[in-house]
Design a protein that fits this description.
The protein is α/β, with parallel strands linked by helices and 271 residues long. The protein contains ten helices and twelve strands. 40% of the residues lie in helices and 19% in strands. Strand 8, helix 7 and strand 9 form a beta-alpha-beta unit.
Length: 271
Amino acid sequence: MEVVLSRPRGFCAGVVRAVDTVELCLERFGKPVYVRREIVHNPNVVSDLRSQGAVFVEELDEVPEGQRVLFSAHGVSPAVWQQSRERGLTVVDATCPLVTRVHLEALKFAGEGYSILLIGHRGHDEVIGTMGEAPQATILVEDVACARTVQVPDPERVVALTQTTLSVDDTSEIARVLKERFPRLMTRNDICYATANRQAAAKALAREVQLVLVIGAQNSSNCNRLREVAEAEGVPAYLINGPTDVQDEWLEGVERVGITSGASTPERLVE
């Protein structure tokens, strides 16, 4: 069997920055270092950091008052920042700078009286954080069906922002529908370069192989989009967390298998 590796794949700069931040805090301040939610969406990364002394919590009330807490790469809402101040916590912010950019755009456009249509997935940590910046002005648009029905107070002042880890193709279609309905719509392409580049590589990979394995976590948005991109090219694609998830029947009759990995997946899992 021939194995074809996709490039680029694996860790993006924002993930490297976030993981390094946890490790540097452990080195400088010692154990424990509290981290709100998963620093990145990958259980192997979280497990490795936990073994070094990181303590992962869901909410800030699990962090003892006065302690240090890290915010994950996905960003948080202003309400979480306020809660951290009330509890006297020292915050180390590991939010990806490209996510921070979307937060700043939301604040800017809300301040100028725009309605914000945020294209993204309900319940994702990044979306929760971004919507928290201007909750009264922001409406979540999850798919084309929603784009066809969403209503805004002033069709002349509306802007579309995006979650950074979306499917490039799906987002373009949603934006097209919104533009048809709101001709004055301002659009901001906030999908990060790492997400876009990995999707383009996965699409090219799928054209060369009979099966694609995407290595990454089930709750990772960018990993799920890689699987969808490969499937859209007409080949079977599976999202797996590691080698033990590979099922023998997938490989029957397969002579060329492609492997890629999400932006929060360690390279050792690829190897």
